[in-house]
Amino acid sequence: MRWVLLLVVLAPAWAAEDELPLGIVRGKLSEPKSNGLRGGFVLTAESGRATPCTYDERTWFESQRVRVSVDAFGPADPVEVLVDQRLHSDGTRRCYARTVRLIEPNAPAPNPRRPVYRSVTEHIMPRGDLAFSGVVTGFTADAVLVKTRTAPARPFLMRPDTRFLERGVISDRANLPVNQIVFVRAGKNIEGHLEVYQVIWGEIVTGK
Questions:
Q1: In Å, how far are 55, 108, 125, 193 from 186, measured between CA atoms?
Q2: Residue 3: how many CB atoms within 10 A of its CB?
């Protein structure tokens, strides 16, 4: 009987979490609020559903293949948001934006027959929730070696979808020189090894 009562109490909370968007959502942004590098906005999906979302210094805002700030987006601009869920101290899960990209004119919708690569472990392991800054010391066949201020050079395994950004513009690993200072977004795979999601170097162009 106690289990039945517990399920009745928790059902609304579970339903609320399940209703949160997850994955790539197309829509528009409104009511942006910022406090330094952190803030939030309302994401209105193409279906008309509005969801408050938060962002922080790890969120990547992009317009015309250049990194910008949230202020660069107007309420009429169509965007594509990679939405995740973040667990808060009160036990609730809320919408969190990992990337926000302006949809270019005539850009096709994502093709479900050609999905973006995702590791089979990503549903149980965080996606790129670790940030590092350091100096590139070399490369191996499947990794980039980065030395941070507090640790010796260590390998960051490259993924099929690892993204390289030079001065805010999409680049390639071949353009990344040794001894270059970089910012790395990474996460641990199921074996505990660091996988790199983004490698960023050079000056970043900000929005107005």
A1: 17, 29, 12, 10
A2: 7
171: number of CA atoms within 13 Å, CB side?
Answer: 17
Q: Which residues of the chain fall short of a pLDDT of 50? A: 1-18, 107-108, 110-126, 205-208
User: CATH number of the domain at 13-102, out of 1.10.260.40, 2.40.50.140, 3.90.550.10, 3.30.460.10?
Assistant: 2.40.50.140
pLDDT score recorded for residue 91: 78
Please give the Cα distance from 15 to 32 (Å, whole number): 27
pLDDT at position 18, please?
45
The tokens for 62 are 């992009």
Q: Please report the pLDDT score of residue 138 as a whole number.
A: 95
